[in-house]
Amino acid sequence: MPGKKSIPAIIAVALSALLYFILLFHTPRQNFYQLIGLFAALSGLYIYLVWYASREGIALVLIAAIFFRQIPFFSLDSLPALSDDFFRFVWDGRLMVGGVNPFSALPESYINNPELATNLHLTPELFTGLNSKTYFTIYPPVLQGIFYLASFIFPQSLPGAVQVMRLFIVLAEAGSIYLMILLLRRFQQDDWQIALYALNPLVIVELTGNLHFEALMIFFLLWALWLLVEGKWIGSSLPFALAVGSKLLPLMLLPLLIRRLGWQKTMIYGFLVAAFTGVLFIPFFDRETFINLSRSIDLYFHKFEFNASLYYLIRWVGYRFTGYNVIQIIGKYLAMVSALAILIYSYREKSPGWKNLPESFVWVFLFYFSLTSIVHPWYVTSLVAFSVFSRLRFPIAWSFVVMLSYYTYRTTAYEENLWLAALEYVIVAIWIFFEVREQRFVKKDTL
């Protein structure tokens, strides 16, 4: 029987589960105020459960974390209400089941050929749901493998394929939580800090609920980090390559290894990562794949805008001087500035070691997200994951306010409220300022 101290926490878990179910499957993303109200309530319950874990241990946290991630399996159709990315996942998967390279052509080229579309089970419903009809797929090979398997098992069932994909995310999340506990103990840090990630509402909603594969990237990076900490740096290159094969972003983390492994080992490590990543691309290996993938990446930096921070300020200045949107000009330069900032940080990092490597991951991701033109809510989950091993809490604060960006989906015009975006980033910036200042005071006091 649970003790009296556990009863409020159990009630909080039960209430959270109910709110997750309503939010994930009975809250259209157009209903912004219901979404924000439910998310705010979940955030309050999260704060209480983290506080409880810090005093009573992580047993209830682990049970609740597993339970919350099972909730999406209880829905009748299982389709996320807050995201439509899964349509492209299934589209790519059905192409591969039909023996077609998903990087080979735009979706409209298939839907305009009814006989081919029918043979590949590319239905009008699936095509209508795509938010990416006019550009090539951008999803790397690890994800394409999951799309293929889900569509192979359920060749004509959209909900069935979605549930298979969700199973991979849940397994990755379970692996991440396990590795986080191992790493916390290895770093001699408190177990309760796992609650910061395991119970985080943004993580649960965006990864398991909305089917975003940052979950795999986080898991593979944690696995690579664990092997590095254990001195198995050659073996670590494989899960690192799998992280790159899930999302390309981990490539920007490689400079952090130079002062930890040395130049020679880092070069070998980078070569192995490149070799393993190349192997992952073998099923799609042709000139067309890399041309079309590069086109998608180019579009990402030169066309798309969503919930940005510094980029929007630069864009505003550009409008004043040129009278038009300067994204075509500044997109690539911001990427270059981001890369330069990462290199400088990696070179000037103080006391680089394995214990503070996760915190360095947070800063590197922050440099990139601060300068990019797109910051979807689920991007922030990677910062939340690696902040678990540090004193940084601004990723937690960001995970609360980033959901304000869902205001954009209130209408099909997809118009952002820049005041809400400004509020989001002002809160995050203030939090970062005070955390950095506090860390400097702590270091001075310890000298």
Short key terms for the protein model shown above:
0% strand, 447 residues
Overview of this protein structure:
- With 447 residues, the chain is an all-alpha fold.
- α4 (86-97) crosses α8 and α20 packs antiparallel against α21.
- It contains 22 helices and no strands.
- Helices cover 67% and strands 0% of the residues.
- The radius of gyration is 22 Å and the shape is globular.
- The mean pLDDT is 91.
- The chain has helices spanning 7-25, 32-56, 59-70, 86-97, 107-111, 114-119, 124-129, 141-153, 158-186, 195-198, 201-209, 214-229, 233-244, 258-261, 263-280, 287-302, 310-322, 327-348, 357-371, 380-387, 394-401, 418-446.
In short:
The protein has 447 residues and is mainly alpha-helical. Helices cover 67% and strands 0% of the residues.
Secondary structure layout:
Layout: H1 7-25, H2 32-56, H3 59-70, H4 86-97, H5 107-111, H6 114-119, H7 124-129, H8 141-153, H9 158-186, H10 195-198, H11 201-209, H12 214-229, H13 233-244, H14 258-261, H15 263-280, H16 287-302, H17 310-322, H18 327-348, H19 357-371, H20 380-387, H21 394-401, H22 418-446
